[in-house]
Amino acid sequence: MMAHASDHASLVASPWVARYAHLIRPHARVLDLAAGSGRNARFLAGRGARVLAVDRDAEALAACAGIRGIDTLAVDLETGAWPLAQERFDAIVVCHYLHRPLLPQLRAVLATDGVLLYETFSDGQQAFGRPSNPDFLLRAGELLQLAALGPPLTVVAFEQGLSERGIGVKAVMQRIAAVGPEFAWPPALSA
After folding, report:
1. Measured by CB atoms within 10 angstroms of the end CB, which terminus of the chain is less buried, N or C?
2. What average pLDDT score do residues 133-161 get?
3. CA torsion sign, 175 to 36 to 89 to 50?
4. How far is C-alpha 189 from the geometric centre of its chain's CA atoms?
5. Peptide bond connecting 131 to the previous residue in cis, omega within 30 degrees of 0
6. Average predicted confidence (pLDDT) for the chain
7. Closest among 93, 94, 96, 56 to 72, alpha carbons compared
8. Does the pLDDT of residue 53 top 90, yes or no?
9. What's the pLDDT band for 185 if we cut at 50, 70, 90?
10. How much of the chain is helix, strand and coil, in % rounded to 5?
11. Which of 56, 75, 13 is nearest to 38 (CA)?
12. By CB neighbour count within 10 A (0-12 exposed, 13-18 middle, 19+ buried), where does 24 fall?
């Protein structure tokens, strides 16, 4: 399930991505998976990253046309072969998307000094609306399990539970910021 249309409409970067973007080094190659109209891709490209924005919605991706630092790929990642198997990314950003068969592929294309910023809905979201299908909801601690796949990532931050998505709008979310075993500490603190 790709990001919701309401997520596509916003051009404001995810607060989680914005909070941990400093982990992504300048000029990094970034994969923005389920990018929609590119809210996170635009933010990261504005910080100097080279972003590949991937989504099955070519019309939404068209909003990124001509933006310096962003390339787009319109592909349905839930059918066919994983098109990025030969790629490597310095960072991977995923917001409001879950297709479990892709999780090992994401880890495989993340550089050993790379950064993973992932947030999506978690079990318990059913009480607050969509998505409510368990196939699209993380199980408790599932992003921690993703980080533990070899070689394990170092978890910089992890959140799980009820959060505000807007004024009076609640959601059950799970978020992780993690770095690869060869990540250079301390991260750059530039804007």
Report:
1. C
2. 94
3. negative
4. 21
5. yes
6. 90
7. 56
8. yes
9. confident
10. 30, 30, 40
11. 13
12. buried
What's at 37, amino acid-wise?
S
Count other C-beta atoms under 10 Å from residue 51's C-beta.
29
Could you give the CA distance from residue 17 to residue 78 in angstroms, rounded to a whole number? Answer: 24
53-60 mean pLDDT: 96
Q: Residues 157, 167, 14, CA angle at the centre, nearest 5°?
A: 35
Indicate the SS3 state at residue 84: coil
| Cβ atoms 122, 173 nearer than 8 A | yes
Output the pTM of the full model: 0.91
Residue 119 has pLDDT above 90, yes or no: yes
Query: What totals of helices (H) and strands (E) does the chain contain, helices first?
Result: 6, 7
- Cis before 186 (ω within 30): yes
- Are 125 and 132 in contact by the 8 Å Cβ rule? The answer is yes
Domains in the chain and their CATH numbers? 5-179 (3.40.50.150)
CB atoms within 10 A of CB 53: 30
